[in-house]
Specification:
By secondary structure, this protein is of the alpha/beta class. The chain is built from 14 helices and 29 strands. The strands form six sheets. Strands 1-2-3-4-5-6-7 form a seven-stranded mixed sheet. Helix 5 runs antiparallel to helix 6, helix 7 crosses helix 11 and helix 8 packs parallel to helix 9. The chain starts with 12 loop residues before the first strand and ends in an 11-residue tail after the last strand. The N terminus is likely disordered.
Length: 582
């Protein structure tokens, strides 16, 4: 299991390893979660991979963020001649990297920075006091380091990273992919031996970062397809070698699944410091979990025609804005004008954003949309400064709610037909409905985030170890808390108790699922319902992707019958049709 690789008590360090001829990776490692962003949600640590190539000239690819600045530079200086570095290749720019970049620029005597034009613009704005020698990559330029290392550059922009740049070394056949094909997991493995062990982490990373931009993922895959690649060298996680073909195929498959969704949401945003982008990422994650596609539009880099097309072709629109000097940024003003001019007044909308002091931009956008007669899929989300775990959960649940509202609206607009087997269930569905299951409430808690789900889809699976399966719909908020290694509790309900009614109601995003209930904490940290008949403390062992559900296999080592005289509550259904299922 991946969790066996984690050692939370370990300090941060840098693992140095030669991955090919004259090519070394510096893996800055942390066994703890570093920040509150969706893609770090599995809390398995991370590596920030940086690469040193030594030909007649030298190149350094992707120095890490400021979390690792000190230990990274110490390790680099101890092993290579940093002062004579010739080229610094930056696959993308973010504020977190500035401290490390500044430190490197103070050390190096004459270094040329290689990056895309959007990255160059961001870099000059972030470091105005530096006279930066920048070489801008506009196409498939080549950089000859000597001794066969003639590096090729492939711009692979996306809404989330308009400056993204891949680097290919034909001598070693390494493709340095930066954000593509990564995952957040920390351990000693440099390569992905036993690659399937990392599959859940890679799928989670994809779902958080890539699922909202499938067109750009497919475009990047097309660009790299002609290359002879020995392995991918991403910015995070192990090198992708053993599972290269499989992971490339899965990226294609996952992206196609997102792109062909019948309902889509245009998610427009601009982000001054990255916080609004993080909120949008969490909202988009909730929408895609619920089976609705997302067209992510970064208004800072998108053309007005792209914004117009997205608004006209999507079924809902969500717009996110920071507040700069008490105002809406120019890019969002332009996009908002296009929205008001082209969106149907019956369209479902949403507004979100982060701010430093007062957040006028969010209120202004929301008020104008209300005045124009738009219907809101969730209440406007206002976040001061950086988002927290609780905030991100609120955003994800808001995205789920938005997608579910779109589905309801779409269904209501369909022609009303006489009741048919498609509504009541086929003969097989009616027979399936006779499968009886005990009513249970699955509860889980991680940090400040907790959730619960009423279900009857629980079945014992193994005697030794004692284990069972539970099916969790992909659009349920609790799904984010039920990944491999996560603890939870199965609360088996008692006949005649009213807990079922409590969990049958619709909860608003971020609403406390346990308000008004008597709850205590299990030894694994998850909530136990005191009015349950019995409970089991459990841990997720594995997950299986099954259509619109995840089937989770879990084991248990302890539990208790709370009321020995009670009887298990059982759900009797007439059909296996989804409208009749719990």
């Amino acid at each position: 299991m991946v969790n066996s690789l984690l050692t939370p008590s370990k300090p941060r360090d840098v693992q140095v390893f030669p991955i090919a001829k004259q090519t070394t990776v510096f893996r800055s490692r942390s066994w703890n979660r570093l920040r509150f962003e969706m893609e770090y949600g599995l809390q398995r640590g991370t590596t920030a991979n940086s690469y040193w190539i030594q030909g007649d000239k030298t190149a350094l690819i992707d120095p890490p963020g400021e979390t690792f600045t000190g230990i990274y530079l110490e390790s680099l200086l101890a092993r290579v001649n940093v002062r004579q570095l010739d080229y610094l290749i930056l696959a993308h720019i973010n504020p977190n990297r500035m401290a490390t970049l500044q430190a490197l620029l103070e050390i190096t005597h004459q270094v040329t920075i290689i990056c895309s034009n959007p990255a160059a613009v961001a870099l000059k704005a972030a470091l105005p006091d530096y006279d930066l020698p920048i070489s801008i990559v506009r196409g498939e330029e080549t950089l000859d380091l000597g001794q066969g290392h003639a590096l090729k550059f492939l711009p692979t922009p996306s809404p989330r990273w308009p400056d993204l740049l891949c680097t290919y070394d034909p001598k070693t056949q390494i493709l340095f992919t930066d954000k593509w094909f990564g995952c957040h997991v920390c351990g000693d493995q440099v390569f992905d031996e036993g690659w399937s062990v990392f599959l859940e982490d890679r799928r989670f990373y994809y779902d958080c970062l890539m699922a909202t931009q499938p067109r750009q993922v497919e475009a990047a895959l097309e660009r790299i397809a002609p290359l002879q690649v020995e392995f991918y060298a991403p910015n995070h996680g192990p090198m992708v070698r053993d599972g290269l073909r499989e992971l490339t195929y899965l990226y294609q498959q996952w992206s196609q699944e997102q792109r062909v969704q019948s309902l889509k949401v245009a998610l427009l945003y601009a982000s001054a410091y990255g916080n609004t982008a993080t909120l949008g990422q969490a909202i988009g994650r909730g929408i895609t979990k619920a089976g609705v596609g997302v067209e992510l539009i970064n208004c800072e880099s998108a053309e007005p025609s792209e914004v117009k097309t997205a608004i006209e072709t999507c079924d809902g629109v969500i717009i996110g804005s920071p507040t700069l000097g008490g105002h809406v940024p120019t890019q969002i003003q332009t996009a908002f004008g296009i929205l008001l001019s082209n969106a149907s007044r019956g369209q479902t909308v949403g507004v979100f954003g982060s701010f430093g002091w007062s957040g006028e931009a969010i209120d202004l956008l929301a008020d104008k949309l209300r005045e124009a007669g738009f219907r809101f899929g969730f209440e406007p989300i206002r976040v001061k400064f950086k988002p927290t775990e609780t905030t991100l959960q609120l955003c994800e649940e808001s995205g789920i709610q938005f997608a579910q509202e779109l589905k309801r609206t779409h269904k209501q607009r369909q022609p009303v037909l006489a009741k048919t087997t498609s509504q009541t269930g086929s003969a097989a569905q009616q027979a399936l409905g006779r499968v009886i299951g005990s009513l249970c409430v699955v509860t889980a808690k991680q940090g400040e985030v907790s959730s619960a789900l009423l279900t009857s889809w629980v079945a014992q699976a193994t005697f030794n170890p004692p284990g069972f399966t539970v099916a969790i719909a992909k659009d349920q908020p609790i799904e984010s808390l039920l990944h491999t290694g996560d603890p939870f509790v199965i609360n088996i309900l008692q006949e005649g108790k009213q807990i079922r009614k409590h969990f049958l109601k619709t909860f608003a995003p971020g609403e406390d699922r346990f308000a008004g209930l008597e709850v205590r904490v299990a030894s694994n940290g998850a909530p136990i319902l005191q009015d349950a008949l019995a409970y089991l403390e459990c841990q997720v062992v594995s997950r299986l992707d099954c259509g619109d559900h995840w089937v989770i296999y879990a084991t248990t080592q302890q539990g208790q019958v709370i009321d020995t005289n009670g009887r298990t509550a059982v759900l009797h259904r007439k059909t296996g049709h989804p409208t009749q299922s719990v």
